[in-house]
Write a structure and sequence with these properties.
The chain has a domain of 93 residues: GMP Synthetase, Chain A, domain 3. The longest helix has 17 residues. By secondary structure, the chain is α/β, with parallel strands linked by helices. A hairpin with a 3-residue loop joins strand 14 and strand 15. It has 14 helices and 28 strands. Helix content is 25%, strand content 28%. Helix 2 crosses helix 3 and helix 2 crosses helix 5.
Length: 502
């Protein structure tokens, strides 16, 4: 039996179509229901469905009146506020292509994006780094004024047209712009049954910031699509406060990266009578952490695996819990295979996890890089670069990446990008970067370097902070006489970990 999962194609996306119109399709039927609650201890800021749609469609009008037109690229440099999802959906409603980016990126990193994308405008939040530019820049005060403008009509069209662009780190060390179609939101219906177990009566709290794509999809757009209530902790709420918020706001589903679950468990969780289950993605969830959460709360965590090019497509769920040690199974409607050199391998044998090119959630391609896009396909299969084993039960055990990509708090980070930034230091000769485990289930980025003499850690920390987003910055620096290399001179990053000082 081959490592191939195919239980039938998903329902085709309707046409004409607009992603934002689909997300807010329940607004007219549920005008007075709370769509979004921004929560903190003792307080909540609530947005009804009619208020949310008014703000989104007014923002669409504001963008169009500012001179943008359908198909234009809009770079988003916004912080952890409700401005982020309103602007994102407002742009898509108008047919404009938003590019959400992490507020942690430095001016240097953003400047490279501006040069590559040539955006028609940039939205900038207070204190968020943005390089000088000749294109129009709009602040959050201007954006707030757009919300009550007359509502724009949704720009309907081909579901296969470009809707938004997100950035992901590539193995080349250069962040890649991933283009997604409007149909990507339609494909997320496969997650509703295959991961979430989500209904319109749910109250889903996502612990991430507004400006993280995991939060944007799982925490906001998917609950709104279903007519549920999305809850997001206000900026500054610490992880110790999450469990009380789950109780006080009667949260039925909780979503977070595994590291957040770990931090919550450092404090008493108390009784969580309304919580049915948790969702985890962004990095591998360890069995130790999964069992610790179950013992503390009496609820399960259902894990999902995905990537920027296709969001999540493998997951455990209330209907299909994961087998011991397994990640989960392909979601209903997906076509997934474990490939070897000659196609799908027999079940039980390791290979590369692959997604069929017809998956409606799969990217359109890397923007401006057709050759790089084509290189990711093997026949009809998109090659993820992640290794796994498919069991007879359709469950997949994750074996890790076939390259040296790192994971920092849910963000994929290329070591080559970090190394390039550190090599600009005049006293560093060579550098190798890898992820190391400093204690059970806790990893961080470490930089191993050579040079005339050790450099104080605070100097290197400051150097990295000026050139890299916080999540990309090494937390440990190790001076070596030489770096491990193979006979051909290639750096052996995995051989760096044993060189950590005791």
């Amino acid at each position: 039996m081959l490592s191939l999962f195919d239980n039938g194609a998903s329902a085709p996306c309707p046409s004409p179509f607009n992603l934002a119109a689909h997300v807010l399709g329940r607004a007219k039927a549920l005008p007075d229901k709370v769509a979004l609650s921004v929560v903190q201890p003792g307080n909540a800021e609530n947005w009804r469905y009619d208020e949310l749609e008014t703000a989104v469609r007014g923002t669409a009008t504001g963008l169009l009146k500012s001179g943008l037109k359908p198909g234009d690229i809009l770079l988003m440099r916004l912080g952890n506020t409700v401005d982020f999802p309103v602007a994102y959906l407002g742009a898509i409603a108008a047919g404009i292509v938003p590019v959400p980016t992490s507020s942690q990126l430095t001016e240097t990193e953003v400047a490279a994006m501006v040069q590559a994308l040539d955006p028609a405008a940039i939205l900038v939040g207070a204190g968020v780094p943005c390089p000088p530019t000749d294109c129009p820049v709009y602040d959050t005060a201007t954006m707030a004024g757009w919300r009550n403008l007359p509502p724009a009509d949704y720009a309907m069209g081909d579901p296969d047209r470009l809707a938004y662009i997100i950035y992901t780190s590539g193995t080349s060390g250069r962040p890649r712009a991933v283009g997604h179609a409007h149909r990507a939101i339609w494909a997320r219906q496969m997650m509703m049954r295959g991961w979430y177990g989500l209904s319109d009566s749910d109250r889903l709290l996502h612990a991430g910031a507004f400006n993280w794509t995991y939060t944007l999809g799982t925490g906001l757009m998917d609950p709104w699509t279903m007519g549920a209530t999305a809850l997001i902790p206000a900026a500054g709420v610490d992880h110790a406060s999450i469990a009380p918020l789950l109780h006080d706001h009667k949260v039925s589903i909780f979503a977070a990266a595994p590291g957040v679950y770990r931090n919550i468990l450092k404090h008493p969780t108390g009784s969580l009578p309304y919580l049915r289950h948790g969702l985890a993605a962004g990095e591998k969830l360890s069995l130790t952490l999964r069992y610790a959460w179950e013992n503390a709360t009496g609820t399960q965590i259902f894990e999902a695996f995905g990537m920027s090019e296709c969001s999540t497509f493998l997951s455990a769920s209330p209907e299909f819990p994961a087998d011991e040690g397994a990640l989960g199974r392909p979601q209903p409607g997906r076509r997934v295979a474990i490939l070897g050199l000659d196609g799908p391998v027999p079940r039980g044998e390791p290979g590369t996890i692959a997604i069929h090119r017809d998956d409606p959630g799969l990217m359109l391609g890397y923007v401006g890089a057709p050759e790089e896009t084509a290189a990711k396909f093997q026949g009809d299969w998109f090659i993820t670069g992640d290794q796994g084993v498919m069991l007879p039960s359709d469950q997949i055990t994750y074996l890790g990446r076939d390259d040296d990509m790192m994971n920092a708090g849910g963000y994929r980070v290329s070591p080559i990008e970090v190394e390039a930034a550190l090599l600009t230091h005049p006293d560093i000769t060579e550098v190798g970067v890898t992820e190391v485990e400093v204690k059970a289930d806790v990893g961080l980025i470490a930089a191993f370097y050579t040079g005339p003499a050790p450099i104080p850690d605070n100097v290197l920390t400051a150097w990295a902070a000026d050139r890299l987003a916080r999540y990309k910055q090494p937390r440990m620096f190790v001076h070596l006489d030489t770096l491990p290399r193979n006979p051909n001179g290639k750096l052996l990053r995995r051989a760096l970990r044993p060189l950590l000082p005791n």
